[in-house]
Design a protein that fits this description.
It is an enzyme of class 3 (hydrolase). The chain is 27% helix and 32% strand. It is an alpha+beta fold. Strand 2 and strand 3 form a beta hairpin. The chain is globular, with a radius of gyration of 12 Å.
Length: 95
């Protein structure tokens, strides 16, 4: 698994974080999603065996943008979870 963190612009309430979490969970290859309204970021873990890293990152950023937000790639490190963070396992990988 690989991890990527994105800076997210355009989230202004918890509903935005919820929507973005759902959108990112639907991206093929994404295993886990952690969206933080407080930090204005999203951390995704993805399975690089599904597609090359660059293609997966493009798909993640495209999904963020199609949802009405702006996503930019940051350093690949996961932040610590907080109460304002949504952290879920993508349904197609939870077994």
């Amino acid at each position: 698994m690989q991890t990527a963190r994105l800076s997210i612009t355009g989230m202004d309430h918890e509903g935005c974080a919820d929507v973005l979490t759902e959108v990112l969970e639907r991206v093929r290859g994404v295993a886990t999603v952690c969206v933080s309204l407080a930090r204005n970021d999203a951390t995704v873990q993805f399975d690089e065996t599904v597609a090359p890293r660059e293609r997966l990152l493009d798909a993640v950023i495209d999904a963020v943008n199609r949802a009405g937000f702006i996503g930019e790639l940051e350093l690949a490190q996961a932040p610590a979870a907080s109460s304002a963070t949504r952290h879920t396992m993508a349904p197609h990988l939870a077994q």
